[in-house]
Amino acid sequence: MADRKPCKVCNFTRQKSYGLVVPSLEELKVKGSAFLGLTPHDPVTVVLEDDGTIVEDEAYFWCLPLNTKFMLLHDKETWSPLRRVDGGTAWMARDSMMLESDVVDTACVVAPWWGLALQLKQDLTSVILMSEEDLQSLVDVPCPELASALGFQEKKTENLQETLQRVLDRREEERQSKELLQLFLKAVEKEDVQSHQETRRPSEGAMNIGLDAPDGMEVDQASGFISRTLMVLKGKTSPETRLSTEDLQMVVAKGVEAMQQVLHWDQVKTSALLQDCESELKQRLHQIQAAQSMKGNTPLCDNSQPSNEKNSEEN
């Protein structure tokens, strides 16, 4: 076993996980792809499951601890932080030393916003990846508690919460603009229908009514989506602005045919949804790259020096 390394592999949704013993990084790609059901000979990227570090060097691969968990990515898949959801009532802190990476200890629960605060402390650009629900939970946290979790002074934390609120407001403005455009198009369509009512077939009217009716709330067990995400996809206007980046990645990765079966929509409507989700995903990732290039993507920490504190607040 000295020349073979035990490890674990999973896909980008973390729904599939397998244990392997491989002699090299290349063999990890080959056997891992086979276990995860990826197409043979397709290029894959190996990253660390816990933080997304890309593993390309063979020597670095052998320096990692035994049973390290890797994630195999291909095509448009990207790494995203792990979110643990237990019905929407409690989140587990991913960086807590009391939890193992693959075990949820129901006795150790923290406030829903705590895991988000840890992400924010490591990298402020993670704001772009968060859903509206995540952002709202951070805005609603009492300022002293959030300041304590981030290690910031209250004034800086107050400014941060104001920034988060502005992000929420901007997404709401974008959604309202789309809703106004859709209302205008519906009004034009209705006027056209009234002017051609005598020649229009009754079946067309029934079809339009069916398109506006809300879909059922039944969750497809094979889709991997939680019920809340399906509710947003089926019943909300501009759902791509309401979802987290992780949910957007899942929608784009599944493709049109799979999402048709999940949502029970026609191909045209499903294709439009996927295009909107892919556009929103690209926009968020572009914003992250721009922010990281400006700030060097360095973890933030509080500094008690007055001059440095002033510079941080100005930034």
The Rg value, from CA coordinates, equals 23 Å
Q: Please work out how many helical segments DSSP would assign.
A: 11
Give the neighbour order of strands across the main sheet. Answer: 2-1-4-3
* Protein structure class: alpha+beta
Task: Assess the beta-strand content as a share of residues.
Answer: 5-15%
Shape: flat
Number of strands: 4
Low-confidence stretches: 85-109, 203-216, 300-307
Largest sheet: 4 strands, mixed
Mean pLDDT, to the nearest integer, reads: 77
Q: Strand-and-helix sequence, N→C? A: EEHEHEHHHHHHHHH
Distance linking N and C termini? 52 Å
**Helix content, binned percent:** 40-55%
Would you kindly provide a brief summary of this structure?
The protein has 315 residues and is α+β, with helices and mostly antiparallel strands.
